[in-house]
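Exercise 7. Predict the joint structure of the components listed below.
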Amino acid sequence: MYREAFLAALTVFVCYGGNWLFGQTMIERPLVVGCIAGIIFGDMRAGIIMGASLEAIFMGAVDIGGALSAEPVTATVLATTFSIVLNVNEKAALALAVPIGVLAAFISMFMKNVVMNLFAPLVDKYAKDNNPRAIAIMHYSMWFINYFVFSLITFFSVLEGAKPVQHMINSIPDNLMAGLSATGGLLPAVGFAILMRMLWSKKLAPYFFLGFIMVAYLNLPSVAVAALGIILVLVISFKDKQLLDMENKQKELEKRPVAAAGAGVSNNETAEEQEEEDFFS
Amino acid sequence: MKLNENISKEDRKMLNGIFWRSFTVFASRAGATKAHAPGFIYSITPALNRYYKDDPEGRCEAMMRHTTWYNITQNVGTFVMGLVASMEKKNAQEKDFDAESIVALKTSLMGPLSGIGDSIFWGVIRVIAAGVGISLATQGSILGPILFLLIYNIPSILTRYYLTYMGFSLGSSFIEKIYANGSMKILNKAASTLGLLMIGSMTASMVKFESKLSVPIAGGKPILIQTYLDQLFKGLIPLSITLLCYWLLSKKVNVNWILLGVLVLAIILGLLGVV
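Solution:
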C-alpha cells in the first residue's frame, strides 16, 4: 500500500500545487485530476469517467477570494484511488468523495487563513529590509508547505484508510447504497446554485430556463447549447450597443449648450455618423 | 492591437517579466490580512528593479506600499500589475507624485475587476469548457480533459498577456471610461446571459433524480411515480432542488449546511426506498 499511497500523494501535489503555481490553469479540476490518477493507477478510462462525474458534483466548488465550499483535488484522488486500487463500487466511491471534499476544504481554509498568518509579519520585515529575494523565497516556501501538507494528508488517508473504507463499503446495506448514489445525482444542484448566485438577475432568469429546456426536451449536446448561446448573446449585444450609442449621443446633445459654433460642429458630426450608419445598415 | 508600439524595448522586457511571474501570484497566501501580497510584490519586482535602479530607498518604500491585502481574479489582475508598473515609473521620475494614490487605485480596482473576472472566467468560460469536457469524458475519452483545458486556458492566458500591456499603456482612465460609457454593462450582461444558459442546460443534464416509487393497482401493473413526474415536466425534481438551493443561498444560508442538507435528504430518501 506504500506505493499506492505515495503515488496518490504525488498526484495531489502535482495537480493541486501545480494549479496554483502555474496560474490556476484548471489542472486541479476533477476532469483532469481523475484522468491523471487513472493513468498513474493503470486504468485511464475509469479515471476519466470518474473525473467526469466528480466534475459535475464539484462544479460549484470554486475558490473565490479564498472561500471554498469543497476541495476537489484530494476528494478526486482519494475516490479514484479507492475505486481503481481497491475495486470499490464506483457509485460508493463518488458518494465518499463529497465528505472528503468538504473536510479538505476546512483544512485548506485553516491552512491559508490561520496557519499562514505566521508569515504575515515576515512580509513586512522583508519589505522593510528592501529584500525582494527573501520575499520570493518566502513566496515559494509558503507554496511548498501548504501543498506538501495536503500530500501528507492524502498519503496517510490511503495508507491507513484503505482497509477500513473497503470494509465499511462492503457492509453498507442496499437501500443506504441507493441513497448514497442519489447524493451523487443531487449534489451538482448545490454547485449550480452557487454559480447562479454569481450571475442571476430577474431580467436574465429566463435564459436559465431556456438552457434547461434545450437539454431536458430538445436533448441538445452541450457544444450545441454553447454555440447557440454565443449566437444569441452576440445578437443581443449588438442591439444593446446600438441602444447605448443612441443614449450616449442623446446625452451629449443635451449636455452641449446651443452655442452657435459648438452646435454647428456637433450637427455636422452627427450628420456624418448618421450617414455612415445608414450606409452600413 | 496596437499596444506595443509606444512601449520601449526595456519596458516590454519588464512587462513580459510581470506576465510570467503573475502565474505564481496565488501560489502563497499570507493569512487573511495580507492574502496574496507576497505574490503581488514578487510579480511586480521587475518594475521596481527597473525604475528604482539607483534609488534603493525608493524601492524599499514601494515594496512596503504593496504589502497590503491583494486579491484579484488572477488572469485579470495583470491589468492592475501593468497599471502599478506605470505609476511606479511616474513616481520614480516625478518628485511630487502622490505615492499613496498607487495603493488607493490598486485597492479600488480589486472589487470591479474581480467581479467581472470571476463571472466571465469562473461562471462562463469554465462552465462551457466543463460542459464540453464532461460530455466527452463520460464516454471515457481522453479528449474530455484535453478539450476542457484548451477551451479554458487559451482565452485565459491571452487575457492575462494583453491586460498586462493594457494596464501599462492605457491606465486607469480606460477602466473608468468603459464603466462610464456603459460598455462594461453590456459585457457583464452578455457574460451573465451565456453563463445562465449554460448552467440551465447543465442542470438538466447533470442533476439527476429518479424515483422508483410505484402505486400498486389492484389487478393491474403498478404505476411508476416517475412516469407521472416526467409527464408533468421533464426534470421537475432536479430543477426544483436547484432552485431551492439557490433560494437558500440568496437567503444567506451557509453553503456547507446546504451541502449537508442535500446529502442527508438523499440518504433518507434512499433509506425510505424512494430512490
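Discussion. The longest helix of chain B spans residues 100-137.
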